[in-house]
Amino acid sequence: MKQILKRLFGGDQIQQVQEPEKKTRTPKVTKSARDLATERGEPWVSVVSVDLDPSNISAGSFELDWNDKFLANLVRAGYQKQANEPDHVIVDRWFQDICRNVVLETYEQEQADPELRRVSKRHLGGGRTEIS
User: Fold this and answer.
1) Which of 6, 12, 89, 102 is the most exposed place for a label (fewest CB within 10 A)?
2) Which residues in 13-29 are b (16+ Cβ under 10 Å) and which e?
């Protein structure tokens, strides 16, 4: 049996096959939008996440991310009220201002056009309702 196997597989010679050298690849680094804006010297801010309380849909929070240029613009615009104020306090003050402006604009539009306040409901069946 050994002889048959030797003949089939080339006798007593054992051939070693060299594996080709593995090339180490450097991982492709992709830059974030924040990094790109920072490199260009542009202000940048983004909403990272929105968390809502499932038991109270009106309660929640936003997580924001920003670069130094954005923060510098807020300081220049007067959003810093005290020296050595933490960055997140300055950005939070700006974000509250944005939210306040959205609410005021919506209120002003409703006052100017009362038809906007009208809510219509249409039952679609299967426990679903369309509200517009």
Assistant:
1) 12
2) eeeeeeeeeeeeeeeee
Do residues 48 and 63 lie in contact, with contact meaning Cβ atoms separated by under 8 Å?
yes
The pLDDT tens digits for 114-123 are: 666 666 778 8
Amino acid at position 6, single letter: K
Furthest CA-CA distance within the chain:
101
Pairing mode, if any, of strands 121-125 and 45-53?
unpaired
Is 60 exceeded by the pLDDT of residue 16? Answer: no
Domain count, the chain: 1
Q: Domain limits at 78? A: 32-117
- Residue 3 within a domain: no
